[in-house]
Amino acid sequence: MHIRAFATLLSLAGVVLGATSSSTSGTSSTRSSGGAGGLRSTQLSTASIASATTTSTVIPTATSSAARVSATAAPVALNDSMPVRTQLNVTGARGAFFTFNTTADVPIYISMSLCSGPEIPAYNTSNSTLLDELGLNALQARRATLVGMFVSEKSSIVRPGPWSNLPSKQIAYAQGGWASIVLEKGSKNGIWIGIWPPIDAREAFGMFSVQIAASTKAQMEQVATRQGVLLDDTDSSRALLTSFNYTNHAPNISLMVLPTEGPFSLSSITYYNSSFCAIFDLWNTFNASMHALHINSSDTTRHTASVLTRESELLKYLRPEDAPSISAPTATGSAGLKDPLEERGIDMYKRANSSAPHGGGRNKTHDHQQRRMQFEVSGLQRGTNYTAYLVSSVMQNGIITRRLYPSVKFVTKKSTVCRLLYNVPFCPELAYAIPFNEEMSMTHALSEINGMISANFANFSATLSTFPCDSQEFGMYSSVATCTDCVRAYQNWLCAVAIPRCTDVVDPLESAASQDGKDLEGLPMDTNVHLYPYIVNRIGQNSSRQPYIDRLFNPGPYGELLPCLTVCEMVTRSCPPLIKWSCPIWTVTAQRDYGTFADANSLGLGYGANGGAGDDGMRFGGWPSVYVATDAFGHSYCNAMDTDRILRIEVGAARTLVPRVWLTAAAAAALSLLYIY
């Protein structure tokens, strides 16, 4: 009979992450040791340009400070907030044991992680025939292949294990290589901890390196359930990734990037993907190798919004200094605890928007521009898969506490034709690779494109200026959009069609886009069930969407990842009827010039269609789960130009932030830990 051992929290090696003062340039650099169918356009006012401020982050470079102990013979006493490591035989008949002296009414946070060892494949728990053969239910089968952690509060059980008949809150299994148990009321007699190998090793053998820590000060490690970092794009040697939003000072966050395969990768992307010590150990080793990467970080306002705040007593419990009680976990048993701050933050928006008091004094209002931290990773190998991990660090009660966000996978491009471009003043939402010939002058090319965009936008601005955007006498043309939204939507559309997003050439049979438009007959079309990207191959002279691309860049063959249809539709819904904007119909001509989200319907719009995120919500890697333009596996389906984020906010309006809301200043500080895409 097999009972799987399962994961909940882990103790990291004591490596300090976080922001430090930057170099004179202000940008952090870390390195390891070694009308619609046609072009209309844009003259952007400086007020609408998202300027990037700079910050810096420090990537951890120290090795684990955890002491090495042997805990299989006699229990080892743990010191408060001091991690230790021990060895555990995968097929052994005994566990590793620890003690921790505490007092009643003081919460105890115990964490455990697997730093190294073999992978034990999980059973397919949806196979009822297999479960019958094993004589297990699905839960038992899941736990059968995992390392287990058992905590006893009784002096009569000093070597707790699977047979100890403990309450469920005192048992956890290392799913993803990470497990934790929280005893909210502490223990007057101290506690005894047992770490046991999987009951079913499935023919695996060897030793696990296990790290464990107990603390009465704070939860030393947490695993977030929401994505903390998103992929913008890659070229053949670089990648651009962006963090969650924040409104105040930049949080202490660091990005680690590892090859998905090879000697510097996790031995199992699933068995260890939530293990702090496994990821940190590999990162430190990778940093000391000749393959070390270079990571630059800076602030950006790309894909963000302004937030209005009030200084009031409302929701004052969400101040950053209140974070320990807010972020304390309330459940054990699986990696990836639901962040209570997320739930309270969501509720905060509802109440702040409906009941925030008006007036002066402590209710003085402030306008905060949200920001993100962007990471440019260079030194990558062409056509190679990588996995990125974001970790945040906070000093709490004298110790470093860390949060690990779900990983993001990406692959660099094979072709050198594509070059990553971002921080473009006249296209502030642009952050992707563009077709480019290294022999050409990027400065000259962008200067010419800027002139073209500015000239075209002048016509649009002239038309829009005839509409009384700010007139109360004529009333609002929309309850959800303003002329500012109209300008931004048009600007994003213009940039998307004027500057194509470059990717590798693909087999036309593996693209959901129409290569020449001849197959578009206006008839109903199936959804993109194969989840192919919307890529049109641009091969040969004058094959680009815009003739000047070939003239200015002379890139050679490349694939264009088409703009999402919603980039065009966002102009329709954001602008006054005066503009007379219209977009092509999906089944007629749109699929030659536009793509759509992976979960769009047969009309190229909507969300949650085409199978959605799947029964387990993990079809796209967990997040995003709706309006999916780029998933957590690094697959890009169309070029969204921020429309995906805007639409996700709207469909979650009852539970997430809208672009501009009233918040208390204290709540805004708490938003530094919340993120919205």
TrEMBL record:
Residues 20-40 are annotated as: Disordered. Keywords: Signal. Pfam families: Mid1. GO terms for molecular function: calcium channel activity. Residues 1-18 form the signal peptide. One of its GO terms (biological process) is calcium ion import across plasma membrane. Coiled coil: none annotated. The keyword Signal applies. InterPro entries: MID1/Yam8 (IPR024338). The keyword Signal applies. This is Stretch-activated cation channel mid1. It comes from Malassezia cuniculi. The gene is MID1.
